[in-house]
Design brief:
By secondary structure, the protein is of the alpha/beta class. It has a single domain (about 5-85), classed as 3-Layer(aba) Sandwich (Rossmann fold), CATH 3.40.50. It has four helices and four strands; from the N terminus they run E-H-E-H-H-E-H-E. It has a four-stranded parallel sheet, with helices on both faces. Strand 1, helix 1 (about 10-25) and strand 2 form a beta-alpha-beta unit. The longest helix is centred in the first third of the chain and has 13 residues, at about 10-25. The protein starts with a strand and ends in a 5-residue tail after the last strand.
């Protein structure tokens, strides 16, 4: 099974990508976001609601990419097969 990292996953485009990946793959998904003004976990919560399989395959990691990824954050992310880099200031 693949494990993917989606940076900016709580944003508008990111949450649509996460929803697509959950519905169309069996991949583990790590969402990395700093949840500033445009990031909103309610979008993802609606996707996960009522689906145990989706909740098992989804993880959220809070991190601001303006800072380096230290060993603790790296450990939470783990080894990934793909990175979808969608994080940006809006």
């Amino acid at each position: 099974m693949k494990r993917v990292l989606v940076t900016g996953g709580a944003g508008f485009i990111g949450h649509h990508l996460i929803e697509h990946l959950l519905k169309n793959t069996d991949w583990q998904i790590v969402c990395l976001d700093r949840l500033d003004t445009s990031g909103n976990l309610n979008r993802i919560r609606e996707v996960l609601e009522g689906n145990v399989d989706f909740r098992k395959r989804y993880e959220f990691v809070w991190h601001d990419l303006k800072a380096a990824i230290n060993s603790q954050i790296g450990g939470l992310i783990g080894k990934v097969s793909y990175i979808f880099h969608l994080a940006a200031a809006s």
